Amino acid sequence: MKIKNKLAAALLFAGACMAGCSESFLDRPPLSQISADNFYQTTNDLRLATAALYGGKPWAEWNYTCYLPIGEVLSGNMAVNYWGDAVQLHTFSVSGSNEIMIASWKSMYKIIAHCNVTIKAIQEKAPASIPEKDRNAAIAEAKFLRAYAYYKLALQWRDVPIIEDNTKLINSPLVYRNNVEDVYRFAANDLLFAAKHLPAKDAGRVSTWSAQGMLAKVYLTWAGLDAKGNGPRNQALLDSAKLHAGNVCKQSGLSLLPNYADIFKTQFNDNQESLFALQWAAGAGWLEGNMLQIYSPGGAEISAAGQAGWFAISPTYDLYKQYQGGDSLRRKATFMLKGDYYPELNAAGGGYKFNGNTGLKKHIIGTRVDNSAPTMSLTSSTEHNALLRLAEVYLIYAEAVMGNNTSTTNADALLYFNKVRTRAGLAPVTSLDAETLFRERRVELAAEGHFWEDLVRLSYYNEPKAIKKLNEQERILFTYDDKGVVTKGDALAAITPANTTTFKFPIPSPEVTANPKLLEAPVPYPF
């Protein structure tokens, strides 16, 4: 079979896998409905199959609807006006019918289903003529992505169903939730397999360093569960986070890009710092490609195809305050203020000067000419947005080293923490405390969907502090004039004070209707 026909078969197979995903995470096609007999016959077939796991329809709705609203709006970094579901996130009043929350649940289970079917097909269809290392590497890619999805589900809902084989749902469609500890354990097991079987380098795809970096993140988060909201974290899990993050820091040979702003430019897609990035193609349709440029605050002059962004998302005053003290390089690369000039946007026209008040900069990549992408559209950005970066692993390592202590002068922790800090043009520190590290993560990773995860992670072992942080935020927009004068705006809506229930989403109402067992007590997963 020719390569182009193989690719068509892979895409058809992927489409069939996802055909039943529109209503419920339980509605999945059995493998027997999909003709895969002529596929999965060579190593290249496996590469084609796993390539479909990195973008396209399985990821597009989450990337557009959930990535920034949950990671940034819910956390207080940013705000979106005139979108009722986003305002619910902003005000801590998320209902079971919130479409952003529902989209996150559905999207993660779509990705899991896609990975499950791919794993099952490789195990059952791939002949012995394919080298075992190639079969395991392909399965490892799918397991990495499945682990990422379960990590997201655990953070947002805690106890959720673990679905490992979607074909079993045909005969037994109603399932219980599993304990959150088991969800993290399941994700960790997938990542351990991935770390063992993925290569050290594979451009645009995950590697063993990607798996170990993600594994460190899972262990670091999981370590707080035993504390039940107030107490020390599990030292063994912190040690595991330190081990795997340390491996990435010291053994991968990877390094940070010298220029922070370059990370988010398409000419640096899949750079040495990118450990896991979604892969997007130009020309994709609605909810098929990277739609983040819809959030652009600029006009047609920095648009892909002459259509300006229309869903502006803006930094809160609380986020703006974090960049005081000379942190201008990261601020300008993260969000625009009036008067900011960006030579890489509308480069052929002399660059772009922002004349609005405030607006998103990360993920706003400019015109087709700026990106050498003649078919790019407003809904198909060619930015391969990274969901895990080396800089984050450096900060994970520093946090794992500090562990349950309130501060550290450990040389290794300071070395990797200061690599992140000095790249931003800031002076290195000689000691590190929990609050400094928390803030560093916030500004380094702002507009990349991580800050809500940090708040949830904190709530596991110090819930009062996490609640206090949320309730002390100035979750308001602001204006910035030509002279650099900042004026706070009015509240978008009345905010419900954060409390112990704020850190967990309700189970989506449509899922409860389809499966009442989701409301019953969670059960252990049979490992």
From TrEMBL:
Coiled coil residues, start to end? none
Q: What organism does this protein naturally occur in?
A: Dyadobacter beijingensis
**What family does this chain come from, according to its entry?**
Belongs to the SusD family.
Which SUPFAM superfamilies does this one have?
TPR-like (SSF48452)
Q: Where is the signal peptide?
A: 1-19
Keyword tRNA-binding on entry: no
Question: What keyword terms does UniProt attach to this protein?
Answer: Cell outer membrane, Membrane, Signal
Q: Which InterPro entries match?
A: SusD-like_N (IPR033985), SusD_RagB_dom (IPR012944), TPR-like_helical_dom_sf (IPR011990)
Report the protein name in the record.
Membrane protein
- Domain (RagB/SusD) spans 320-522
Q: Indicate whether Membrane appears among the record's keywords.
A: yes
Q: Where in the cell is it found?
A: Cell outer membrane
Looking at the record, the residues that make up the SusD-like N-terminal domain are 88-220
PROSITE patterns from the UniProt entry: PROKAR_LIPOPROTEIN
